[in-house]
Design goal:
The complex is a heterodimer. By secondary structure, chain A is mainly alpha-helical. Chain A contains 11 helices and no strands. The chains are: A mainly alpha, B alpha/beta.
């Protein structure tokens, strides 16, 4: 279970080493909120901008717990509409790769149960 | 005894002589040829000691002056004024014995004294080689100025210039003065009608009797330099003469109708009405839309017989000393932001469309209504940053749109006190006292939603407009229905021809050299004003117009100019390098093909002197003879490393004041790193100097634009040559240094001297 603990403790600087593209996108985000308006995921909330905001505040663990990571349908409307030309959806994809290291924590409860992961 | 060089050494109340042996220096200098007077004084800057210098000059004992005292950055004026009044500026040499000798090497009196001696030797040698006095020239330009653009900035500049006694020519592209401001319903912060302010300004302008206004005219070409511009102006025909009484019958009968807006049902005829403008109050015919003489309806009804379809384009030229570029800006074409549906969805307007709609001259007589069905527009949504701060459209913030929107929410409230006004914003940027408008809008119940909307759509059932957005503060999606959607579009500059050679930013604005010289577009005598400089509101445009007029007045009434470069005509081959490289375009070729610096345009940056391949153009004090004498003066033989450092007088030279740096380095102040001629470096190496430093500002901080870049590229070429003759190229180095970075400059010099010591003596050295 050591790898899982490592993900628990992941900080912003680790993320910079792991996926520099994520931290660069997060660093450049204006928080204008157009991606949230464009997002087709069936969720309320601040959309991809909200995830980027958590990263800007170095709240990596919280970002990995965002339900949007799994609600994202990959339409890429966030990236297409970003006024700063940032590939926002790529951040969600990359974070998805990190999140399952401890799936029962990050996956929606129903999905985890279905996958037989819940204790 | 004939007059000679007077050397005056200052003790500075002990600060200098507690390190440097001034008495020893005096006895040595007394034996030098050409020196007629050496004195050590307690404090040269005090009136008593200064008077003794003047006395020596007036008694004819001294005709050239070496001051061995503090840095030229201290007491910038006393010695310079003394030299200018009693001798000539080029016959003064200041040796920095305090900051760069005594204070720099407090622990090494012997080293400091040797360095002081070398500096004085260089100073005396330079003055010995100096030609006679060079008296600065005085301007002889005419008192005429051209203002390009008759908007509010141009009018402010022209009015002020006319009041200052200057003959002004105003050239306006459109048929009337007033520019964009004349198209506004009201302007902020007062919320008054701009026609009132424009009328006052125009009246003042015309009544001065010194202004000639040319509407429907444009600049076809500009030649010459500051103080003497020859400007060709193309005058398009108006087709309606001065007899026009403004009755409007021609417009009524004109059969041509053209749409003027993609957002509003607005149209105009081929006969253009002066309604809403302030001057001239005469109609004009748009020849492109007009059916031509074959139609002739307007000519038939005109009671004054003013219509004349046979007019031709005319050209004329004016001779002016300076030009104000108040060419203004246009609204960004928001149809390019496709999601917002401008031009596609009726009811989506730009902020300028709303001005027109709200204005009594507008298509509805000032009533706010939906263009599609003319129902009252009670629900209005404003979208800020429509295309601004967007990498696909305008990357910059247009600075005025937030305040414009706050102003326009008042139009809606005034029409319908119960209106639902929503503003979608990324950041509200209303600075200073304009914050009051923000507070008031919130007070009145305007809803501010923080989130850049995705799109404007038409609701499937009602056909109403809806704005699709998310409120990033609450994290909720929002869908706001609206009768009108107003897009706050940014400003883009009107194209300014490259032939003006103005320094533009990425967007095409001429922002000036900020913060020191905001109107300076890197072409002497041409000053930008208004939104040609960057996005700004009407108040800013007036301020900027007044600033440009102040610059013009300073240029016209200039006293003795800064020192102009001198030309040795016997050597010049007319290669035009100086003409090309002058950052201000202040050098033209005279009739014989020799460069002629303009007294009003030159800033004495010396970049011409740095680039001259024959070293025949130079600032006073930097002729080939003077520089050669300077370089040959100190003994540079022996094992010890000797470095000459040409330091930019704006930054690097001042930065070195008071820092501890190696005694082997002898600093020479130059006007700019770009003023260092590679010939000097060549001479220095051949004279046996071990190393040469050129230090200036960082590239984007240079007061003269690109001096350090020029120094860089020139030195790189010289280094190539050095390598080809098997001399270490590292003996010549370019350093950059800000005015507060003396420490790092000193460290770099230290490092340089260490590397030269490792390298061993220069191969050109006579040991």
């Amino acid at each position: 279970m050591e790898t899982n603990l490592a993900v628990d403790r992941l900080c912003f600087d680790d993320l910079r080493l792991l996926y520099p593209v994520i931290t660069e996108i997060a660093g450049n985000c204006n928080q204008c909120g157009r991606c949230a308006a464009a997002c087709l995921a069936p969720l309320d909330g601040s959309g991809p901008a909200g995830v980027l905001r958590l990263l800007q505040l170095s709240l990596v663990r919280e970002a990995l717990e965002e339900r949007l990571l799994w609600a994202c349908i990959g339409c890429r409307r966030c990236s297409d509409n970003c006024p700063k030309g940032l590939d926002v959806q790529l951040v969600l994809l990359r974070l998805r790769r990190l999140a399952p290291c401890r799936p029962e924590r990050w996956l929606p409860a129903g999905l985890a149960r279905w996958l037989n992961l819940a204790k | 005894m004939p007059a000679g060089i007077g050397v005056y050494l200052c003790r500075c109340d002990g600060r200098i002589n507690e390190v440097i042996d001034l008495e020893g220096l005096r006895s040595k200098i007394g034996k030098w040829k050409g020196v007629s007077e050496v004195r050590v004084l307690t404090a040269l800057c005090r009136p008593g000691d200064l008077a003794s210098v003047v006395e020596d000059i007036q008694a004819g004992r001294v005709d050239r002056l070496v001051i061995g005292a503090c840095s030229p950055a201290v007491h910038q004026e006393s010695f310079e004024r003394l030299a200018a009044e009693d001798l000539a500026p080029n016959l003064l040499e200041r040796c920095n014995l305090r900051e760069q000798c005594a204070l720099a090497h407090p622990g090494d009196p012997a080293g400091a004294t040797t360095q002081a001696l070398a500096l004085l030797k260089m100073g005396v040698a330079r003055l010995k080689a100096a030609p006679g006095p060079v008296i600065p020239e005085t301007t002889t330009g005419n008192r005429r100025v051209l203002v390009v653009g008759g908007g509010i900035a141009g009018l402010a500049a022209a009015g002020n210039l006319a009041r200052g006694g200057v003959e002004v020519t105003v050239v306006e592209k459109r048929a009337w003065l007033g520019g964009r401001v004349a198209q506004l319903h009201r302007y902020y912060p007062r919320g008054c009608a701009p026609r009132c302010g424009l009328a006052v300004q125009t009246e003042r302008l015309l009544q001065s009797g010194r202004v000639s206004v040319h509407t429907l005219a444009e600049v076809a070409g500009v030649h010459g330099t500051a103080g003497n511009f020859q400007v060709n102006i193309r005058q398009h025909p108006r087709f309606i003469g001065q007899e026009c009484t403004g009755c409007g019958r021609c417009e009524a009968v004109c059969p041509v109708v053209t749409d003027t807006s993609r957002g509003l049902p607005a149209w105009r005829k081929a006969v253009l009405s002066p309604a809403g403008s302030v001057y001239p109050l005469a109609y004009a015919i748009d020849r492109q839309a007009c059916l031509g003489p074959a139609c002739g309806k307007c000519a038939a009804v005109c009671p004054a017989g003013a219509v004349c379809m046979e007019e031709d384009e005319q050209s004329f030229s004016v001779n002016v000393s300076a030009i104000v570029m108040a060419t203004g800006s246009a609204l960004y074409d928001v149809a390019a932001v496709e999601n917002y549906g401008y031009g596609r969805l009726p009811g989506v307007l730009t902020s300028m469309d709303l001005e027109f709609l709200a204005s009594p001259d507008g298509p509805t007589g000032g009533r706010l209504m939906r263009p599609a069905d003319e129902r009252p527009a009670r629900r209005v949504a404003f979208i800020q940053c429509a295309g601004s701060r967007d990498c696909k459209h305008l990357p910059y913030c247009s600075a005025i749109c937030c305040a414009v929107t706050l102003k326009q929410t008042r139009y809606v409230r005034d029409a319908y006190p119960d209106a639902e006004v929503t503003v979608f914003y990324m950041d509200m940027r209303v600075t200073g006292h304009l914050e009051e408008m923000y507070r008031q809008a919130m007070d009145e119940g305007t809803v501010f939603i923080r989130g850049n909307p995705l799109a404007v759509v038409r609701a499937a059932d009602t056909g109403d407009l809806e704005v699709v957005a998310a409120d990033s503060l609450s994290g909720r999606r929002v869908l706001v229905g609206a009768d009108l959607v107003v897009l706050a579009a940014g400003l883009v500059p009107e194209h300014i021809a490259d032939s003006y050679h103005l320094a533009k930013d990425g967007a095409g604005f001429v922002p000036g050299h900020l913060p020191c010289s905001p109107t300076e577009g890197r072409r002497a005598g041409i000053f930008a004003a208004g939104t040609a400089q960057g996005p700004m509101d009407a108040s800013g445009a007036v301020q900027s117009g007044l600033a440009a007029s102040a610059e013009c007045l300073a240029l016209l009434d200039q006293g003795p100019a800064l020192v102009l470069p001198l030309l040795d005509k016997t050597k010049c081959d007319g290669c035009k390098r100086c003409v090309e490289e002058c950052p201000y375009g202040a050098i033209t070729l005279d009739r014989d093909g020799y460069p002629l610096p303009s007294a009003t345009g030159c800033r004495s940056c010396g970049i011409c002197q740095g680039g001259c391949p024959l070293r025949c153009i130079h600032l006073p004090g930097f002729s080939t003879r003077e520089m050669a004498a300077r370089l040959a003066a100190p003994a540079v033989g022996g094992e010890e490393v000797r470095v000459i450092a040409f330091l930019c007088g704006n930054d690097a030279y001042r930065a070195l004041d008071g820092t501890v740096y190696p005694v082997n380095v002898l600093p020479v102040a130059v006007s700019c790193a770009g003023a260092v001629n590679m010939g000097w470096i060549n001479d220095a190496l051949l004279n046996g100097w071990d190393g040469v430093i050129v230090a200036g500002c960082r590239a984007d901080e240079c007061h003269y634009g690109h001096g350090p870049d020029l120094a860089d590229s020139r030195v790189a070429k010289l280094q190539e040559t050095l390598r080809s003759v098997m001399v270490e190229a590292e003996r010549v180095q370019v350093l950059t240094c800000g005015i507060g970075e003396g420490g790092s400059l000193a460290a770099a010099l230290e490092n340089f001297v260490r590397r030269l010591t490792e390298m061993g003596p220069s191969p050109f050295k006579e040991c």
